Amino acid sequence: MDKSTNVKNHIIEITTELIEQYNGNIKDITARMIAKKADVGLGLINYHFGSKDKLITECVQRIIGKIVTEFQMTRQYKSDKERLTACATYVFHFLFEHSAISRVSILGDLQYYTKNCNSVLTQHGFALSLQDKMSNEDKSIFVFILTAAMQTAFLGSETVKQLLGYDFTKAEDRAAYISKLVDILLKGMVQIDE
User: Fold this and answer.
1) pLDDT tens, position by position, 10-61
2) The pTM is what?
3) Nearest C-alpha neighbor of 68 from the set 83, 42, 88, 53
4) How far apart are the C-alpha atoms of 65 and 18, rounded to whole Å?
5) CA nearest to 33, candidates 52, 48, 50, 20
6) How far is CA 180 from the centre of its chain?
7) Interatomic CA distance for residues 111 and 96, integer angstroms
8) What is the mean pLDDT of the segment spanning 90-115?
9) What is the Cα–Cα distance from 69 to 64, expressed in whole angstroms?
10) CA 183 remoteness from chain centre
11) CA end-to-end span of the chain, whole Å?
12) Cα–Cα distance between 128 and 89 in angstroms, integer?
């Protein structure tokens, strides 16, 4: 790896730490602050990324992009339901364990929803968990709804607790929510297909 790549990766690591430290409040993070903590000149941020906003977007894209791909599917699953529930639970836990980064990613995707945004990449990852009987069109709709329901529950976790009774500070409630959600969606898709 060349020195330029090492510097760029170091800036990304430092920026990621700051995003988490400031709980996703990216307006409180300045390019000067990033440069100082990374011990680099301010010009290097603009050279490598163009702007602070592009740097933060790249940090979040890298972090979230790894989540679905890091999910190990080496374990054998008896059904799509079991496989998808495991994958979605893994992603949902990540959202809460890295809430600052997740919030930035989701809100950014909602503002600039593109085919390469993290939400769509997550949907593609979920679609890989669905191997049985479902058409590609149904898979696309299914994973879109699943991702949207997960994001809404994450962003509105306090309201979800009041409305549905799930306390997402507890891992078992997060897992129960995903299990119920996948179950309801799969049953709905089966009824549509019949």
Assistant:
1) 999 999 888 878 877 778 899 999 999 999 999 999 999 998 888 887 887 7
2) 0.77
3) 88
4) 19
5) 52
6) 20
7) 21
8) 87
9) 9
10) 21
11) 54
12) 15
